[in-house]
């Protein structure tokens, strides 16, 4: 049975004290209210990561993730953070290829393939994001776009390496816009992604791959999205900044 995951992406939000409050609330609510075996992941800005482990109280239904890591292990890359550094404080997950990194920082599939290699080499679990823009959706090109992001970013991996990834399908037109993909639209492309994985790595790897949906997911639409056969949870932006909303989304699996 593949893992169900609800991951929050705080993006560039929350100062230190705000982050402590938000994470503490999430921990307490998850502890009291999550009865299924879904995993809750909090991907916070770098400044928070080390302190979150102290607040976790050893509670393992919540994992800590970063939002980016560099493609080299160390060196003269001012302002960057490496997978080695993240691993040294026990960070478990790292978001790679978020559309905001692709759009504002010029990250392309070739660079993301390198980031994925280094993250895996150091024991991080990448949450690898793919998804089309509005014009790519409207032109009908979205299957090809998603396929090439997936193949160019990850299909150089061995089956064993690939099986450590979480894939997040995030249509760019749905991120932060309040416009959610319908459950049918999301299921259609999730099934397509799983089929592509099966064609490359075989059905059993595909069946075990967790594929998250991201894009204006909220407590009202999570139930329907997460009940689709190929949607194994969500990558949550805006709603992860409110503990009640975030944990209510995670409870869609209860
Ligand atoms: C995201 O940035 O990954 C995301 C899904 O954002 P939002 O939930 O705000 O659309």
Automatic annotation (TrEMBL):
Binding-site positions, substrate: 9-11, 176, 216, 237-238
Catalytic residues identified in the record: 98, 170
Residues in the signal sequence: none
Pathway: Carbohydrate biosynthesis; gluconeogenesis; Carbohydrate degradation; glycolysis; D-glyceraldehyde 3-phosphate from glycerone phosphate: step 1/1
Any one cellular-component term (Gene Ontology): cytosol
Catalyzed chemical reaction(s): D-glyceraldehyde 3-phosphate = dihydroxyacetone phosphate
GO biological process: gluconeogenesis; glyceraldehyde-3-phosphate biosynthetic process; glycerol catabolic process; glycolytic process
Function comment: Involved in the gluconeogenesis. Catalyzes stereospecifically the conversion of dihydroxyacetone phosphate (DHAP) to D-glyceraldehyde-3-phosphate (G3P).
NCBIfam families: tim (TIGR00419)
Protein name per Swiss-Prot or TrEMBL: Triosephosphate isomerase
Originating organism: Pedobacter psychrophilus
Gene label: tpiA
